[in-house]
Amino acid sequence: xxxxxxxxxxxxxxxxxxxxxxxxxxxxxxxxxxxxxxxxxxxxxxxxxxxxxxxxxxxxxxxxxxxxxxxxxxxxxxxxxxxxxxxxxxxxxxxxxxxxxxxxxxxxxxxxxxxxxxxxxxxxxxxxxxxxxxxxxxxxxxxxxxxxxxxxxxxxxxxxxxxxxxxxxxxxxxxxxxxxxxxxxxxxxxxxxxxxxxxxxxxxxxxxxxxxxxxxxxxxxxxxxxxxxxxxxxxxxxxxxxxxxxxxxxxxxxxxxxxxxxxxxxxxxxxxxxxxxxxxxxxxxxxxxxxxxxxxxxxxxxxxxxxxxxxxxxxxxxxxxxxxxxxxxxxxxxxxxxxxxxxxxxxxxxxxxxxxxxxxxxxxxxxxxxxxxxxxxxxxxxxxxxxxxxxxxxxxxxxxxxxxxxxxxxxxxxxxxxxxxxxx
Length: 424
Description:
Layout: H1 15-21, H2 31-52, E1 56-57, H3 59-65, H4 76-86, E2 89-91, H5 105-129, E3 139-141, H6 142-159, E4 166-167, H7 168-179, H8 182-194, E5 198-203, E6 206-211, H9 224-262, H10 266-323, H11 330-356, H12 363-394
Antiparallel strand pairs: 1-3, 2-3, 4-6, 5-6
Helix pairs in contact: 2-4, 4-5, 6-7, 6-8, 7-8, 9-10
């Protein structure tokens, strides 16, 4: 289990080090000490926001988070002003939110070349004069906000494969562990919408969000058809819950009527049956409504699929038109086919010539010489074979003696070791 103060830096338990860091901001001429103080506390504030899953905070909340015993970090006001001058923290009212309207080149140049430098210079001037009201407003940690935006967009673009709009409640169920609160999620969605990565609309009191798919370059848009489908899905869920509840109540009333009848209370049992009858009529009506809603949802889905098929046909027609564009008249096609046939005939002629091989001018004389040499070799090979065959024919009457079946020494009454048997 994580500790409530697990965001504190490692130097927090170093008494001597923290005595210096908790002191006031060094004077302006000590630039090295001021930079070290701002670097330490900036990193500590960023880590605090990441661990606590909060990118909006006030100066008072930050001061309480880093209070060490009875000592407050006296340099926090200067650190926050420094972070504001760098754009790491800004007042929440300066955070760009919502979808951008189409911006002209003149307005873009005015915003980039005039407004942004003026705001930066004005913040620097207020910091130097010590009249900044940044400590009295809610601040936004822009670095942590950007990290959370990237995380939410990565999760939602991977889960929402059909690029359908989601309600803010449905979205929070998917990414709630990464954003901390619904208010944080709303600011994240508004920031993504400002960057063109999401579309946000409010319909029937519910905020819907639709994200771009990976690889899309166009801004997403939520159509009325999608909103109507969401309304039908919500109505379907409500009717299904109502039908389930009516079924349970009908079963309970039937059991209670049996119990009352067994206890001898016939009027009470009759009353239970009447209530059961009314609930059954309501159940029949809601089942019919559920069937109508389901049919309407199916028709909307079929319409969307048909639209996708028609769009695929349209793209295919454009591709075919592009493929056959150019000179495709019958005369041009016939001329091209004649050229192809001519090239094929030439290739066939070349193949026939290569298959015929190359013959020497004295081919017949060479073959006669080779045949004469081959006959001479055959005569030399047949000579030894004929002699062997003749010798075999002459000695066909010769027979070898049979193999003896007992030892030749047995006639002399000798054992196998050469000793007479009687002396063995």
